[in-house]
Amino acid sequence: MTTLNLQAKQDFLERDAATRDPVRAIAELVWNALDADATSIQVTLERNDLGGLGAIRVVDNGSGISAKSAEHDFGNLGDSWKRDTHRTGLGRAIHGKEGRGRLRFYSLAQRARWFTTTRSEEGLSSRTLEIHAKSLERCEVVEAEAPTGENTGTTVLLTMLKDTFDALSTPDAYRQFSTLFAPYVLQYPNAEIWFNGFKVDPDVTIHRWQDLPPMVIQLPDRTIDDLKVKVIEWKSASETRQIHFGGEDGIVLGSQPAHVTAPGFEFSAYAYSAFFQEIADDNLLELDNLGEPNFLAVVGHIREALGDYFRSRMSEQSLGVIQELKDQGAYPYEGEPRDEIERRERQVFDIATYAINSHSRDFSRAETPLKRMTLTLLKEAIKHNPDDLSTILQAVVNLGKAKQSEFSALLKKTQLGNIIGASSLISDRVTTLEVLKGMVFDPKFRRTVKERGELDALVRDNTWLFGEQFHITMAESGLTKVMNRVAEDLGAKRKGRRKVTKLDGSTGRVDCFLGRSVPHSDEGKREYLLIELKRPLLKLGRKELDQVEDYVNAIRQEVEFTHTDTSWNFFLVASEFETDIHSRIYQKDRPHGLFLHGDNFKFWIKTWAEVVRENEARLQFVQKKLQVEVSDEEIEQRIADLRQLVVK
Question: Which CATH fold topology does 423-498+508-647 show?
Fold first, then answer.
């Protein structure tokens, strides 16, 4: 008998060998068998006379452990033969490199015995190796009699178990075991692995698998360009969804919770990179909350890619349901998507509809008119405010709280809601801009378009036309009254001047003021936006310019606004200017169109063409990406709607 002593202390070996996961501890013994080119491995849970788990046996037909290998590997922690070898004799990837896997039995049993047979030039030879949990640094090797058979292999027997390990006999343990080895069997079909009487069979356990497109991740101090991710969808439920991390050879080294929203899917993800081998070499992959910055960044990219994958899968699954709803006449969309915005909307809509139909009995049993009404509400929520999806799922469809939360998270976690919201916003802006161009440039409309009830109605709800800082403004009734009073006072002072007439010869008030309050984080500060609109046919001259300047000065001096922290943004908009006022509008060393600039106010003069051009420049890039197009019919309909409001 030979005694081999590891050059390490017991407390260190205990820490190194410990794992809280019994399935993973058994898996290490299976990996050792696979590294020994075993083509058949049996994990057996042996029962005692009382029916409890008495021993764990792992039997393989691999190449066995030679006397030389035993002396080297069992006597040297961290200096395994695998360190300098990347492939087995059968060309398989090597799992372990430091010889630590065999000590994982410590988490399960007080004693581990290896019965092994190997072949050399002299023929077959056998030996027994034994390690006790109380002395992990000692391994007793006993040479056995020459075997009578012709087969090599190893049997590992774990006895004096530390716990009952009832969970090892459950279907969940088999599923967990399968998640570890199914990818290996996919890669090496000649490997047959059994666990507690059940074979690891990808055809039985795997519903489908998919390799995701290669990813290149730029980190602050390095680039990860070898990352490969495989997704396996299981046929039966799994207790947890995991991302399994492996080295570049595709061997699982550790796992972390997936934290990916994928309603209705049971899956495991496998991410392979040399980067994960580095993390595993530092014994960090088994930490539940590993906070290494580079690792977190890479995992974030993986989770994002998985989210994209499962949104696509859910969209695929929804096709049958969607076609059925179309046949019933309950689907609220017509034809093919008009543009990229609607394509995105429909993807989320189809996913949510599939969820509703699958998990809400009330909806699936409803009559067609009720289904169409429900789906129309859902369509409008997704298009205009995706955050309302939770309300629709809960109040209208009566979807269960757990499913409701999961499907709502599909939007929130992946920012699809933000994408759709932004797309809808840009689409609305592009349409508004096209309508404005029609009103002020198209001869069909510009001769008859009105400042009041038409131009001001469009501008009032779209003050972003004058700058993104005015995206949100509010009506200010007090300011409107002041503007009207000032206009009347100044008008009275000009009674002797020629009246301004319309094209039909009638008189009317030319001024069209639009006053808005700009929200400010400081409640003591007031900021106002004042816009005076001139009808498209009016050519702005000296008289109009002097008049508006008088308005500006008068409004700023009103008692409501003096001695307060108030700032003003004045805009005068017309189609064109007289030549003699150009020098007053376009001044050197000032932004284009800034007519006056005081301590607390700016007075801008713009043409409708400038307003349109500046906004088109801001929207051009996004518009091109989203492929937003507005038809002539839609423009004419919007203008008609505005005029209908005036009539009412």
Answer: Trna Endonuclease; Chain: A, domain 1 (3.40.1350)
Q: Contact 307/229 with Cβ under 8 angstroms?
A: no
Q: Which of 398-402, 528-532, 556-560 has the highest mean pLDDT?
A: 528-532
The number of angstroms, rounded, from the C-alpha of 472 to the middle of its chain's C-alpha atoms is: 28
**Parallel/antiparallel/unpaired status of strands 223-234 and 198-199:** unpaired
CA separation for the pair 412, 387 (Å, rounded): 8
C-alpha–C-alpha distance, residues 94 and 253, integer Å: 11
Domain spanning 2-199, CATH architecture: 2-Layer Sandwich (3.30)
- In the DSSP assignment, the letter for residue 501 is B
Q: Domain coordinates of the chain in residue numbers?
A: 2-199, 204-310, 329-414, 423-498+508-647
> In 197-292, where does DSSP find H-type helix?
202-205, 274-281
Structure tokens at 32: 């050792």
Q: Is the pTM of this model over 0.85?
A: no
Highest mean pLDDT among 293-302, 565-574, 623-632 belongs to: 293-302
Backbone angles phi, psi at 628, to 5 degrees: -80, 125
- As a whole number of Å, the CA-based R_g of the chain is 38
Closest CA to 179 of 281, 308, 314, 27: 27
Distance in angstroms (rounded) separating the CA atoms of residues 267 and 58: 27
Please classify residue 87 by burial: count the beta carbons closer than 10 Å to its beta carbon, then call 0-12 exposed, 13-18 middle and 19+ buried. Answer: exposed
What pLDDT digit, counting tens, does each position of 391-420 carry? Answer: 555 555 555 565 555 555 555 544 444 444
Print the SS3 string covering 115-146. EEEEEECCEEEEEEEEEECCEEEEEEEEECCC
